[in-house]
Amino acid sequence: MAIKIYKPINPGLRRTSIVKDPTLSKNKPPKKLRVIKKRRAGRNSQGRLTVRHKGGGAKRHIRIVDFKRDKFDIPARVASIEYDPNRNARVALLFYKDGEKRYMLAPQHLKEDDMVMSSEKSVEVKFGNRSTLKNIPTGTEVYNVEITPGRGGQICRSAGNYAILSSIDDGKALLKLPSGEIRMVLEECMASIGMVSNPEFRNIRWGKAGRMRHRGIRPTVRGKAMNPVDHPHGGGEGKAPIGLKHPKTYKGKIAMGVKTRKLKKASDKLIIKRRKGRKK
């Protein structure tokens, strides 16, 4: 894969780049593994806006990705590596020996016709294989890691992410996460070997606002450009500062530097070291 930078032959291509991957399959996803994505535009079941800057976007189908991979000890062949419009990573279409088809998060360096396997026992340390943490050697890069056994992978699922299995002791495994946090999980939790595909995603230059609208992201307006009735930062003559001790959200809450994590949260005992920029 490589980043292709367009020549500025017109205003729409100026400062624009894409990830060019000739190995991606152009086949349509199987009908049984896709559903129509309904547009909610950031609104909840009551129709109230709960997440701003969402709406519009291209029509999409959701690929049903198997985050559990609970077909144990059955080899699967990678039929194709495909683009998924709903995530920044690639997905791999698996053909199992018994004829079933499933999608999985594709790791880096996985290719077509490779064989992968998921097992609760020890497996070969190979990209795409999945097993419990107690059966994976320490120092291995893992992704799509479970927090609760049997629930499916919940962390390290975005493009280029991985965790490092530091140690296993007394039924617990220590993972160093991409944020720098060291977290403890049960050794019965499952994880896939490798790192998530498409790490070049973070280097994309979107170029123009229209590409963001295609992704379903609407414009973000600065608070200081609004009126006082619309935002705490609003008002003033010319380029006025916010005039407050702390930056605030449009609802009046402190926006930067305030801790939002609940005190005495149940998972505090599982965090050995907090992520970068946060004090324990």
SSE arrangement:
Layout: E1 2-5, E2 17-20, E3 34-36, E4 61-63, E5 76-82, E6 91-96, E7 101-105, E8 115-116, E9 130-132, E10 141-143, E11 145-146, E12 153-155, E13 163-169, E14 172-176, E15 182-186, E16 190-193, H1 209-214, E17 271-273
What does this structure look like?
This protein has 280 residues and is an all-beta fold. The protein folds into two domains: 19-201, Nucleic acid-binding proteins (OB fold (Dihydrolipoamide Acetyltransferase, E2P), Beta Barrel), CATH 2.40.50; 225-280, Ribosomal protein L2, domain 3 (Irregular), CATH 4.10.950. It is built from one helix and 17 strands. It has one helix at residues 209-214, and strands at 2-5, 17-20, 34-36, 61-63, 76-82, 91-96, 101-105, 115-116, 130-132, 141-143, 145-146, 153-155, 163-169, 172-176, 182-186, 190-193, 271-273. The strands form five sheets. The chain has a seven-stranded antiparallel sheet with strand order 9-16-10-13-14-15-17, with no helix packed on it. It has a four-stranded antiparallel sheet with strand order 7-6-5-8, with no helix packed on it. A two-stranded antiparallel sheet has the order 1-2. The longest helix has 6 residues, at 209-214. 19% of the residues are buried.
